[in-house]
From TrEMBL:
GO terms for molecular function: heme binding; iron ion binding; monooxygenase activity; oxidoreductase activity, acting on paired donors, with incorporation or reduction of molecular oxygen. The keyword Hydrolase does not apply. It holds the Pfam family p450. PANTHER family: CYTOCHROME P450 MONOOXYGENASE ALNH-RELATED (PTHR46300:SF2), P450, PUTATIVE (EUROFUNG)-RELATED-RELATED (PTHR46300). Keywords: Iron, Metal-binding, Monooxygenase, Oxidoreductase. This is Cytochrome P450.
């Protein structure tokens, strides 16, 4: 509070004048005790603070004044009860009623839900310096790092986040993937085909989970699993599945309604997370770190350890572990589920399958083998089908929300600090202006797109093929 503000505040507030006079009288009264004076001062400061906040609120612009808000906002819970069990459908209805952007309250949190990719790009990329934080979670485990590690839990304006992001980006550089990992990853794909090409009905997901887990383990630790019965596979999938279960309302409700945190001792929210991490995940990751550091080949753990842990091979590895956990969890389930959805979509489209097979047959006849990633230009229809599958069934309906790191103005609207911004991938991928006849499966719409997904994800909204991989500073590091 500036001196001018204090003077103005004092001169215009009789309550403040009376309180200060009362303190003076008590201070010079010989019967007055230090406790009484201290209490008087505390009361005065409390009143001053509340009065100042009330005055400040009058000077603050009204937020979201040009952005529509649905009815049904209730005290404490906001729109949570109005949304109901089917968030996708309710948001679809609200977008039809209110347009490409609307404002809701998720508990106490102001939230902007955005369907139009051009608006999302403007908010999260053009205005990225204001909107590149993440909503603070309540069930994160920092692995004893003191909040220093990780890439999913840290904010993008944090020096450690930038360091970790740079290391991962460099480690997953396309040239490094091609030179170091392509033959190994190619072998994983061949092994998967041999497992499922039995002519019998088979659930592809467990085997796809192992393939995507192996991709992650090979790059991160230089190790792999041999089957879905492998103890390493079972431990890893248990850790991943349990981690993901902590996104239920019991564990995240306090993000929306802070008073629910008072029930943590009864519900055991923090204990659930700590027990799982300390009894299962940390021992598993430490075992893999030791393997990685003794491995002769290249792996991400070595690079992280060299930069974040000064290359020490005796631990502690508490700064490495949050990042390792983020990479393993984010890189396994999402990949497997996305590919499973793609299989499900084209399983009912025999003509699409024939066209893909025809492209591959031509390549095999010419080269005596199936194509590598960098030869994807030889199979344009197959790549177009892949992109269309991603569009029709996004990896996540809404991705991970961003949060405003400070107050800012957008299109004449005052957006307060802490506002959540939620990209609606489902609606963005059904935008008829960008995708004509969006309800139809039309791979041909992508036949002229020769960019890698990395290049596409880092382009403008007009150039992007789809929006699965995030926005701005949080574009996924694992896509190629």
């Amino acid at each position: 509070m500036s001196q001018l503000s204090v003077t103005s505040f004092y001169n215009n507030s009789k309550i403040v004048q009376r309180l200060i006079l009362w303190i003076r009288e008590n201070a010079i009264n010989s019967k007055s005790t230090a406790i009484t004076s201290g209490a008087a001062l505390a009361v005065t400061l409390l009143v001053l603070t509340k009065l100042w906040r009330r005055r400040s609120d009058k000077d603050t612009p009204t937020p979201f004044i040009g952005i529509p808000t649905p009815k049904g906002c209730r005290p404490i819970v906001g729109h949570l009860l109005t949304i109901g069990p089917d968030r996708i459908q309710k948001f679809h209805e609200w977008h039809k009623e209110f347009g490409p952007i609307f404002h809701i309250k998720l508990g106490v949190n102001n939230t902007l839900v955005v369907a139009d990719p051009y608006i999302t790009h403007d908010l999260l990329v053009t205005n990225g310096k204001h909107t590149s934080n993440r909503p603070a979670g309540i069930f994160m485990h920092d692995f004893g790092s003191g909040g220093l590690g990780g890439i999913a839990s840290l904010q993008s304006n944090d020096d450690m986040w930038r360091t970790v992001r740079r290391i991962i980006d460099n480690s997953l550089d396309p040239h490094k993937i091609r030179n170091e990992f392509s033959p190994v990853l190619h072998k994983e794909a061949e092994e998967y085909v041999d497992l499922v090409a039995t002519g019998e009905n088979i659930d592809p997901l467990p085997h796809l989970l192992r393939v995507s887990l192996n991709f992650t383990l090979i790059i991160t630790f230089g190790v792999r699993t041999t089957s879905i019965d492998d103890p390493v596979y079972k431990k890893a999938i248990y850790c991943i599945t349990k981690n993901m279960s902590f996104s239920d309302f019991k564990h995240v409700g306090g993000m929306f309604i802070p008073t629910l945190k008072l029930f943590d001792p009864i519900l055991g929210v923090r204990k659930d997370v700590n027990d799982h991490m300390e009894k299962h995940c940390i021992p598993f990751y430490l075992e893999q770190v030791e393997k990685a550091l003794s491995n002769d080949g290249y792996n991400l753990t070595k690079v992280l350890n060299d930069e974040l842990n000064e290359g020490k091979k005796t631990g502690p590895y508490h700064i490495l572990l949050p990042t390792i956990n983020d990479v393993v969890v984010a890189g396994t389930d999402t990949t497997a589920v996305t590919i499973t959805w793609a299989f499900l979509q084209i399983s009912t489209m025999p003509e699409v399958q024939k066209k893909i097979q025809g492209e591959i047959d031509i390549f095999v006849k010419k080269n005596g083998r199936v194509p590598y990633f960098w030869e994807r230009g030889e199979t344009p229809y197959m790549i177009a089908v892949q992109r269309e599958c991603f569009r029709m069934r996004p990896t996540t309906e809404f991705g991970i929300s961003h949060a405003a790191s400070q107050d800012f103005e957008w299109n004449g609207n005052y957006i307060p600090e802490g506002t959540w911004i939620m990209p609606n991938n489902m609606e963005a991928h059904l935008n008829p202006a960008k995708y004509p006849e969006p309800e139809k499966f039309i791979p041909e719409r992508f036949l002229e797109n020769y960019e890698t997904m990395t290049a596409s994800a880092n382009g403008g909204a007009k150039e992007r093929d789809q929006f699965n991989f995030g926005w701005g500073r949080y574009v996924d590091t694992k896509i190629k």
